[in-house]
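Changelog-adjacent note: as of this version, every example in the card shows the full chain rather than a window. The one below runs 133 residues end to end.
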Amino acid sequence: MWISEKLGGRSGGSFAEAGVATIGGAAAAVETCGEERGIPVYAPGGMTWRPRAGDTVLVLKGGTGGEERYVIAASSGGGDSLEPGELALEVESGSIRLRLDGTIELQGRVEITGDLYVNGHLYVPPTASISVI
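Full-length structure tokens:
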């Protein structure tokens, strides 16, 4: 028991804590009890995310004494209009919201590269013809 407490170093301690990103990016700096720099940032599979300075982030602590730290999430400030089970991806200039009824709401500029299918059919935008009289 004594040895495991000494090795663990944090018997009963927290394995995660909230902090504020002071420097954003892939290797963030986060202020928790003090500022730590170069903390790796992780996101769920298939997603890429980088915190901005000022974001409230969740820091996961690992290692035998909690010396390894990883930023794994940010507070979701804009999700107030979501129902339980819905999903939103948000940035300053736009958002994507997936609603429970199957609705996809897009806000901002939408650019499509590749083919666009509507109801299973390739969408071909109308072309304007100019007549000279």
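Structural remarks: The domain at 2-74 is CATH 2.40.50 (OB fold (Dihydrolipoamide Acetyltransferase, E2P)).
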